[in-house]
């Protein structure tokens, strides 16, 4: 697959199943991730891989977050939260490791670099015959969840990437860009 094909055909999956990307495919995905633009060569991305029975523990972590932040959450809501961890056979958590000491590169640029790394993983998944969906939710922004996943205090989760083989096809998203672009004619200062 040509790079332009992956870019033009990528869309978020609706349903993912086995097989998950194998070790070789995952290695290529991470090699693609670290090719993301990186102002200052800070390598601000961090990754955690969740597979197998660890997904069930991740589901418990998500349910625990919901119970802690919404004490009145129903048993049904907690079960739905647990089930999120099982929507794909493999999950890659992508975080930004923000180095506040580097004043030349603002935290936002470091987070954006981690976001591009996540996008590269998704594009690599498509190029390798898999697909992905990028999820967040309030658990992604909870420092306790990040710590439980092994991230440092300076790390912020930018997304949970669910990876696997697509079961069925999602509707193709409208790829029209013309209404999103305008020419800037310049302005007097």
Can you describe this structure?
- The protein is an alpha+beta fold and 189 residues long.
- It has a single domain (3-169), classed as NADH Oxidase.
- Helices cover 38% and strands 18% of the residues.
- The chain has 6 helices and 5 strands, in the order αβαβααβαβαβ.
- It has helices at 3-9, 23-33, 54-69, 75-84, 107-127, 143-148, and strands at 16-17, 45-51, 90-97, 131-135, 155-166.
- Strands 1, 2, 3, 4 and 5 form a 5-stranded antiparallel beta sheet that branches.
- It starts with a helix and ends in a 23-residue tail after the last strand.
Defining traits:
189 residues, alpha+beta, 5-stranded antiparallel beta sheet
**Contiguous uncertain segments of 5+ residues:** none
The name CATH uses for the topology is NADH Oxidase
CATH architectural group = 3-Layer(aba) Sandwich
Structurally, how many domains make up the residues? 1
The tally of strands reads: 5
Strand content: 15-25%
Rounded mean pLDDT is 93
Radius of gyration: 18 Å
Quick summary:
This protein has one domain (3-169): NADH Oxidase (3-Layer(aba) Sandwich). It contains 6 helices and 5 strands. The chain has helices spanning 3-9, 23-33, 54-69, 75-84, 107-127, 143-148; strands at 16-17, 45-51, 90-97, 131-135, 155-166.
Blueprint of the fold:
Elements: H1 3-9, E1 16-17, H2 23-33, E2 45-51, H3 54-69, H4 75-84, E3 90-97, H5 107-127, E4 131-135, H6 143-148, E5 155-166
Antiparallel strand pairs: 1-5, 2-3, 3-5, 4-5
Helix pairs in contact: 1-5, 2-5, 3-4
């Amino acid at each position: 697959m040509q790079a332009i094909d992956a870019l033009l055909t990528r869309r978020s999956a609706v349903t993912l199943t086995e097989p998950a990307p194998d070790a070789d495919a995952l290695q290529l995905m991470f090699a693609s991730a670290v090719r993301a633009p990186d102002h200052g060569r800070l390598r601000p991305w961090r990754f955690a891989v969740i597979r197998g029975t660890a997904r069930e523990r991740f589901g418990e972590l998500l349910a625990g977050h919901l119970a802690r932040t919404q004490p009145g959450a129903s048993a049904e809501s907690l079960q739905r939260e647990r089930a999120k961890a099982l929507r794909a056979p493999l999950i890659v958590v992508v975080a930004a490791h923000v180095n506040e000491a580097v004043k030349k590169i603002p935290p936002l640029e470091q987070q954006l670099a981690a976001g591009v790394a996540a996008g590269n993983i998704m594009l690599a998944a498509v190029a390798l015959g898999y697909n992905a969906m990028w999820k967040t939710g309030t658990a992604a922004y909870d420092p306790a969840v990040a710590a439980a996943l092994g991230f440092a205090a300076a790390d912020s989760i930018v997304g949970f990437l669910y990876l696997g083989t697509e079961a069925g096809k999602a509707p193709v998203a409208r790829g029209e860009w013309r209404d999103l672009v305008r020419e800037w004619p310049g302005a007097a200062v």
